[in-house]
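Lab notebook, bench 4. Still working through the backlog of constructs that have no structural model yet. Next entry is a single chain of 221 residues. Request: give me the structure tokens for it.
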Amino acid sequence: THNLPPGLEYLNQLDQIIIHQQVELLEAILGTKTSSKYEIKNHLGQRVYFAVEENDCFDRNLCSPIRSFTIRIADNTGREVITVNRPLRCNSCCFPCFLQELEVQSPPGTIAGYVVQNWDPFRPKFTIQNESKEDVLKIIGPYTTCGCFEDVDFEVKTLNEMSTIGKISKYWSGFVNNVFTNTANFGIEVPVDLDVRIKAVMIGACFLIDLMFFENSLDGL
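Model written out:
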């Protein structure tokens, strides 16, 4: 474990990660989008990290859900251990040359990997890459991300897309929560022996999926 990025040692033991978006009262009452805040927990519900989105009011309210952002993830001592950067890019299959790409750093300033959107006319598809931009895993979403009162699963697959080794799930959390507070609960399931750097990239992928497909208040119902 002495070779792991500082702060990621705990991910070495996890095969399930829960991401809970905190309720923003101002957003619920006024409909004004505020900076997202998340608690990242283990399967027992114990907080491992805390994440805060950084951008300006213009991005949040006019560019959402394609807004650029920096998400800073800190451990329980307040030390920043992961930084997630998303530039402003297109969110349409009509522009296959300028699709989403997200960079994950751990520790901050050192590349851990990337999440790259792949063009597909029917399903959401992403590639997880390591720090050298070598392909590691695929993420393939459903044909529709409207769960209709059920969870929505994005499968984590091997590069040949033949085997499923995990998933990123958007948990359905009820009508009131989805419509009025727009908060989200996600679960990440991956092999326990997956490189912790790739686990950190998977957390970044979860944030990207949240903003791309579940930012609007009626999504996930």
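Notes after review: Residues 175-182, 217-221 have pLDDT under 50 and may be disordered. Residues 9-217 form one domain. Flag for follow-up if needed.
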